[in-house]
Specification:
Number of strands: 10
Helix content: 40-55%
Low-confidence stretches: none
Strand content: 15-25%
Number of helices: 12
Oligomer: single chain
Order of helices and strands: HEHEHEHEHEHHEHHEHEHEHE
Shape: globular
Radius of gyration: 18 Å
Strand order of the largest sheet: 4-3-1-2-9-10
Distance between the termini: 30 Å
């Protein structure tokens, strides 16, 4: 078990959005070795059919598992919603975690009145994974989902806040959040779930739009908590005192991955740090 504890935690996403999970995990477990794959040649997953998403996800996961890892983290809401049961069957007994269940659990705990809005990609919303996961934990909850496709390119361009971002957010969200007056307060959703790993970059703008009384749940942070809990339970936490090694893989254009990935990590990435791979 000691040798296994030093193996990396593998994370993958269709692009760079999963780096929000990577960042949260690196902050929470700094001693862990982390291996990240962004399948940028096939992005976005969010507009593709379920069968195609499962196929792409199995390819990405297989490439990581062959390198030797102790856990697989599906740092993509779309892939989690479509392919998590398949991945768990295919790679058992390797522990495989997704981002939907931790986010749903956090939302169920956070909501005071049971009114929850989930925003995500088209495929995640259409699949209903968040809605079903929240309903299992809190059957009386009123859950509504909204596909917010334009948030992805905004995040990747580094447009995190300001009037343009907030106007786009209002176009998506105004119909979901009733006016904050006394008559409607009990019916107004009080929790917003960021069901796409790109969306945490827009946190401040979204909070400005929905108001300070709405709790925003970041599935990246809640996933990092779940990873720590599971590794601790399995006795697989890295006992090293130093900082872990980070490695990055991409299926297309390391230059763009470095440029955009640095925005998500909050620190610069150089193309030389990124290995180009073919799945």
């Amino acid at each position: 078990m000691q040798d296994a504890a030093h193996l990396p935690i593998a994370l993958f996403d269709s692009g760079v959005g999963g780096l929000t999970v990577f960042k949260a995990l690196a902050r929470r477990l700094p001693a862990e070795n982390l291996l990240y794959l962004g399948d940028t040649a096939r992005l976005p997953y969010g507009t593709k059919g379920r069968g195609t998403i499962i196929q792409y996800t199995l390819l990405a996961a297989g490439a990581l598992v062959r390198r030797g890892v102790k856990m697989l983290v599906v740092a993509c809401n779309t892939a989690t919603a479509a392919a998590l049961p398949t991945l768990r069957r295919e790679f058992a007994p390797l522990p495989v975690l997704g981002v939907v269940e931790p986010g749903a659990a956090a939302a169920a705990r956070a909501s005071r009145n049971g009114g929850i809005v989930v925003i995500a990609t088209e495929a995640t919303i259409a699949g209903g994974a968040y809605q079903e996961a929240i309903a299992r934990l809190r059957p009386e909850a009123r859950v509504r989902g909204k596909a917010c496709t334009l948030f992805v390119p905004l995040a990747e361009e580094g447009w995190r806040e300001g009037p343009v971002v907030e106007e786009v957010a209002r176009r998506y969200l105004d119909g979901l959040f009733a006016p904050n007056d006394t008559a409607s307060r009990e019916e107004r959703p009080d929790t917003l779930v960021l069901g796409c790993t790109h969306f945490p970059l827009l946190f401040s703008a979204l909070q400005n739009v929905v108001g300070p009384d709405v709790t925003i749940v970041d599935s990246a942070a809640t996933t990092a908590e779940s990873v720590e809990e599971e590794l601790r339970g399995l006795g697989l936490l890295n006992p090293s005192a130093g900082s872990g090694e980070w490695r990055f893989l991409t299926t297309d254009n390391p230059d763009r991955f470095a440029r955009t990935g640095g925005l998500f990590l909050g620190s610069p990435l150089e193309p030389g740090q990124i290995e180009l791979v073919d799945l």
